[in-house]
Amino acid sequence: MKIATLQDELGAFYRRSGFGDVIGTRPRTVRVYTGCLLVPMPNIEARRRFLKYHDLHHLVTGYSIGRIGEGEVSAWELGTGSFFVSPALGLMNLIALSTGLVLDRRRMWKAFRLGCNSRNLYSAATRADVDSGRWADLPALRHALVKSREPTLPVALRAVEFFIYAALAMLIHAAIAIPALITRFVTDILLGHSIFEAVKPKKRGDLY
C-alpha cells in the first residue's frame, strides 16, 4: 500500500476544505474572521509565502480551518515563535487569535502551551527542507514538529507572553471589527432592513 506523501496530504486537505487542487494559492483578497464578522483583507505577499507551511501546521496539529481551529493553529504558531520569524506573520496570527479568544480562550491557551514545546516550519532553512522532501510523510513531519523540544522558559513567563499576545489581538480585533460592524449596520439600514435585523448576528456553521 502506497504511503501518502506530504504533497498528497496537502492536496487532499485542500479538496476537503474547498480550496481547489492547486497547492498554496489563494485569491488577491481573503475574508478573515474577526469575531462574528468576515472582513475582506489583502492577501499580502507574506501570507502567500508562508501559506503552504501554515496549512501543513493544520495537518500536523489536527486543528481545523473553522474559526476556533484557525485561532488554535495561530496560538500554536505564536507559541513556537512565529512572531520572531516575521512580524507580518505574527500579525496574521494575532488576527486569528482574537477570534479564538472570543470563542474559547481556554483552547487558545492550551494550543499556545503545545506550541511552546513544538517547532514551526517558517524559517527559510526549514521551508527548504520541506520542499526538498526531507520528511517523506505526515507522521514523520509531525514527529519532527509537535512536542519536539523542551520548553526554554518557565510556564509563568510564557503565560505573560500569552497575555501580551492576547491583549494585542483584542486591540487589533477592535480596530478591525468596530469599523466593519458600523459599515455593515449602516449598509443594512440603507438597504431597508430594520434595526433589529441589522444588529442580529449572522448565523454560520463553521465555528469549529
Structure notes:
The structure is a single chain. The protein is mainly alpha-helical. It has helices at 6-17, 45-61, 67-80, 87-116, 124-131, 138-145, 155-190, 195-199, and strands at residues 29-34, 37-42. It has a two-stranded antiparallel ribbon with strand order 1-2. β1 and β2 form a beta hairpin. The longest helix has 36 residues, at 155-190.
Q: Into which percentage range does the β-strand content fall? A: 5-15%
Total helical segments: 8
Note poorly predicted spans.
Answer: none
The level of helicity is 55-70%
End-to-end distance: 33 Å
Order of helices and strands: HEEHHHHHHH
The mean pLDDT is 83
How would you sum up the global shape?
Answer: globular
Helix-strand category: mainly alpha
Largest sheet: 2 strands, antiparallel
**If strands are numbered along the chain, what order do they take across the biggest sheet?**
1-2
Rg is 18 Å
Which tags fit this structure?
mainly alpha, 6% strand
